[in-house]
Amino acid sequence: MPDNSGIDDAARCTELATLGDITYVAVPSGVTLPEQPSQITVTPVTLTDDLKTQIRDASPHCKLIAERMLQKIRAAYTAEDEMYFARISIGVLSGQYVFETGEQAAVAAYGAHVEGVREWGRAQRAALGL
């Protein structure tokens, strides 16, 4: 890894995951790696959707992002709240339920909160190249 002293976190290399005998590392653009020991081979990789999924599934960083996303949602809504909103929304969509006063606004607020959290998670993964 390059010496990041005095460089902001955006220029930090991050080990993402090891799949088989290959370790994937996010190297931000503009960062030049120093010469590596002979046992390390640096090869740029084209990330296919399948490879991104494999890395995300194995990455402790992505697992932490997912945990933080859940914490952000739980800070405002319980699991019971989510199940309630899902039940009534499915009921409305299937024509078996009609929103009562305030429910549609509550579902919309919940949806906006969750989408904000999901956008945060996508931005965190994008910063890792995923």
Q: Nutshell version of this structure?
A:
This protein has helices at residues 49-58, 60-74, 79-93, 103-127, and strands spanning 14-19, 22-26.
Characterize the structure shown:
This protein is mainly alpha-helical. It has one domain. It is 50% helix and 8% strand. Strand 1 (14-19) and strand 2 form a beta hairpin. Helix 2 runs antiparallel to helix 4. The mean pLDDT is 91.
State the distance separating the first and last CA atoms: 19 Å
As a percent range, the share of helical residues equals: 40-55%
The succession of helices and strands, N to C, reads EEHHHH
Shape: elongated
Gyration radius from CA atoms, angstroms: 21 Å
Q: What is the total number of structural domains?
A: 1
Total number of helices: 4
Largest sheet composition = 2 strands, antiparallel
- Spatial strand order of the main sheet: 1-2
Relative strand content: 5-15%
Structural class: mainly alpha
Q: Compute the number of strand runs.
A: 2
Averaged pLDDT: 91
- Contiguous runs where pLDDT drops below 50 for at least 5 residues: none
